């Protein structure tokens, strides 16, 4: 059984790491963008941000004044037991969020949608969001925190099968141009695209693609992986760079995730995980061990399972 105090302590550490430390995969992608960028203002922004990241880590301060909306992704092995159960888990994550808001500190961004009241701690009705995933076997829990911007840099459109790949490209470019010209995202960014599902799951797929995959990863479907590479190059060919200035590095990487959808539609969402790609991950074991990492490893074969069973399952082996 996993101790609840270890979960809460680990969650607090993750909040600190996500706000302050840039994941190595994203930092490498950003450094490559800085080396290849030739737009004057875009180059200036990239260099300033790289210096800011270094200073943030040295001074243990949040890398960006707007620390976004903290959210949690929780994945656990099938045999996992948590002290106090799932209610205790959620309470621990809410406490860690509130404590980190005061301790890091984070900007208290969460308010009531109508009355604009807040508790000054990023906790409220439905906040922070907590999403769950499960894996066959094992007694462990992965805690993943993402500090995602909560205003812009996201769009959705109901496409149709007849729109095809060209229609997907048009909406993708429409979104990137709008993000850049209207200041709706902080580029360069990891772009996540969700295709299919229903309207709500399409948005979830796109956000997870942006926030839970590392730079350089590829979808296991070779045709989708080819689209990801094409879309990265396409996004960097529109003449926009950092913060929408003239340049050629708007997209650090493009990740695409799909879900089966209604036969008559082809839902699509586009999400920009901003210039401060804030995520941190830890795995907690029943014996109290904690392993920190930066790759969420969310999209496993089980998460992408296409049939009734999943690759390597006992049922599949029996058949």
The description of the largest β-sheet is: 5 strands, mixed
Helix content: 25-40%
Mean pLDDT: 93
- Describe the strand arrangement of the main beta sheet, using strand numbers: 2-1-3-8-9
Label the overall shape. globular
**Estimated radius of gyration:** 20 Å
Quick one: how many beta strands?
9
Pairing-aware structural class of the strands and helices? alpha+beta
pLDDT below 50 for ≥5 consecutive residues: which ranges?
Answer: none
Distance separating the two termini:
33 Å
> Could you state the order of secondary-structure elements as H and E?
HHHEHEEEHEHHEEEEH
- Strand percentage: 15-25%
Number of helices: 8
Keywords: 4Fe-4S, Iron, Iron-sulfur, Lyase, Metal-binding
EC number: 4.2.1.32
Protein name: L(+)-tartrate dehydratase subunit alpha
Domain Fe-S hydro-lyase tartrate dehydratase alpha-type catalytic: 10-282
Kindly describe this structure.
The structure is a single chain. This protein has a domain at 151-277. The strands form 2 sheets. Strands 2-1-3-8-9 form a 5-stranded mixed beta sheet, covered by helices on one side. Helix content is 37%, strand content 21%. It is an alpha+beta fold and 319 residues long. It is built from 8 helices and 9 strands. Helix 4 links the parallel strand 1 (69-77) and strand 2.
Keywords:
21% strand; 8 helices; 319 residues; four-stranded mixed β-sheet; alpha+beta; five-stranded mixed β-sheet; single chain; 9 strands
Write a brief caption for the model.
By secondary structure, the chain is an alpha+beta fold.
SSE arrangement:
Layout: H1 4-20, H2 24-36, H3 40-59, E1 69-77, H4 85-103, E2 130-135, E3 140-148, E4 154-159, H5 164-181, E5 189-196, H6 199-211, H7 222-235, E6 251-259, E7 266-273, E8 278-285, E9 290-293, H8 314-318
Parallel strand pairs: 1-2, 5-6
Antiparallel strand pairs: 1-3, 3-8, 4-7, 5-7, 8-9
